[in-house]
Request: fold
Amino acid sequence: MTAYEKPSLDISEEEAVLRTHLGSKVVEITPLVGGNLSTVFSFSNEGKGYVIKFSDMEGAYKTEHYISELLCNQGIPFPRCLGQGKVGHLAYSIMERIDGCNLADFSAEQQTHQLPELIRILTRLNHVDLGLTSGYGWVGPNGDGTFQTWKDYLVTSFAEDQTGNFWENWYDLFQSSCLEKDVFDECYKRLMAYSSYNEPHRYFIHGDFHQWNILSDGSRITGVIDGNFAYGDFLVDLAILDRHMEGREVIHAYQDYQEKVGIIIPDFKERLIGAYYFKGMDGLRFYAKMGWNDAYYSTRNFLLNLDT
Reply:
């Protein structure tokens, strides 16, 4: 299995889509670097900034409008979705552009300085009102979760049969990449053991909460973008952030803030371990597929040492 490559299209193709949606006043069309699964351009229209994302993944952007409305209407600094559609085999989504650069572009000191604000935003994000929605796992276009239980979500996420999505034929990675079947099976066994602690908790999960999906002006957080949105235990987002900001005392800062605002988190340690396994295992196969061997072995060693 070869590493995944984002779809490629030139500015003229992207320009034609924008003119269909917004007319002839589209200017300053610029390709953006970053993002592993989408091809992204920024542009301006009548003095305002926007982005358009293209993906060839099955079901791409189907929940974008729902998520955008949910978060923006509850004060989360998330871009509004202005239009969606398909051009050929590619799905696209047009969003407002939030000022700022990826938090990852700033120095370690600047990132650490913004950690308290980041934790405040994460807490608000995880506690948005979910209304009358139901279900766990991936958020569908109508706002409901795709699965009846958290465990169903986990089992399906790592099932061999993933027809029609990014993980189709992913078991081939056990032969063609650094992904190790015995290591994966051991982590899966531990994940299932800890999942009972995560199971009862249903909140909004960003699902990819790290410095490349967080925007900043260098001194303050300006917005949150993208995500693998789901319903479940919010400690999944904390596990992601901690692994990406390793050595910044993320867990300590998070617990201090929860105590300050009076949020009690039962079974914190066990739930966090369950979250580490869930996102860590997803990371293992992603890094293997992308050919990022260093990231694979770092995550592998972290997971295997979790229970020691």
